[in-house]
């Protein structure tokens, strides 16, 4: 419990740092006045309309992707499972690009539903492809199916963008994973779905402890494994799809955070889920703050920062799994 409280305090602290950090010099005192004595100055406008939404989106998306990773790894028994690796982010991203290039969709609400649809199609496709064969669904086959679907959806996305230069300019920065310039309206359009996903994740957390022991044991203890897996699928689609709609496809959080959270707090999902959510928000906030200073006054997309952070850890996990095998 103390670790969760400390993580929550650190998350709030990083949100404060995010609000005052960037090319325009501001302070905590100035940020406080922006909300209590708004005077219409450029600094106050930046804090209210740019940095506050950015901090809230980073915390929400980071938490959502981390929780998605926890549940995907538990259900699939695959330490590499995450929305990015198993093609769910790529599917959601392709669906949004398809809607922009073919139907010129611009509504935030429509973006959200299209992102959910793309995430669902990708998840079902990976599950089906990974389950084909004599041995059924195995961690290795699931990973390979996810990699194949990620490559497929990414190729489709790039192919569509090459035929539409206007769409390329509009979505290229979004596709790299970025929360720069995102407005509060974007978070408002997906936040209700993220909240539903978080609440469902907390509700089924005790049952996931049983699921972690294996499907046969879970069935023997009276757990409805099939229904629980459907619930996990809904949670992942809500959280991953909503995250892609808000910030584009951001990878590695769903891989890195679950492993760190298990080491720090254990495998009890009643504590693991909220702790992972806090750590996910912390990681994405820290990456976004760092992205503002590397090539200032320009900014590196936070998705690129996460690749720098997450790739070494991904290699470590993969090598560790290969050594065990």
UniProtKB/TrEMBL annotation:
Molecular function per GO: transmembrane transporter activity
CDD domains: TM_ABC_iron-siderophores_like
Spans through the membrane: 84-104, 110-130, 190-209, 272-294, 300-318
UniProt topology in membrane: Multi-pass membrane protein
Keyword match Transport: yes
Localization, UniProt: Cell membrane
InterPro entries, sorted: ABC_BtuC-like, ABC_transptr_permease_BtuC
Keywords carried by this UniProt record: Cell membrane, Membrane, Transmembrane, Transmembrane helix, Transport
Principal location listed in the UniProt entry: membrane
GO cellular component: plasma membrane
SUPFAM superfamilies to which the protein is assigned, alphabetical: ABC transporter involved in vitamin B12 uptake, BtuC
GO terms, biological process: siderophore-iron import into cell
Record family assignment: Belongs to the binding-protein-dependent transport system permease family. FecCD subfamily.
PANTHER family (alphabetical): FERRIC ENTEROBACTIN TRANSPORT SYSTEM PERMEASE PROTEIN, SIDEROPHORE TRANSPORT SYSTEM PERMEASE PROTEIN YFIZ-RELATED
Name under which the protein is recorded: Iron ABC transporter
Species per Swiss-Prot/TrEMBL record: Ureibacillus sinduriensis BLB-1 = JCM 15800
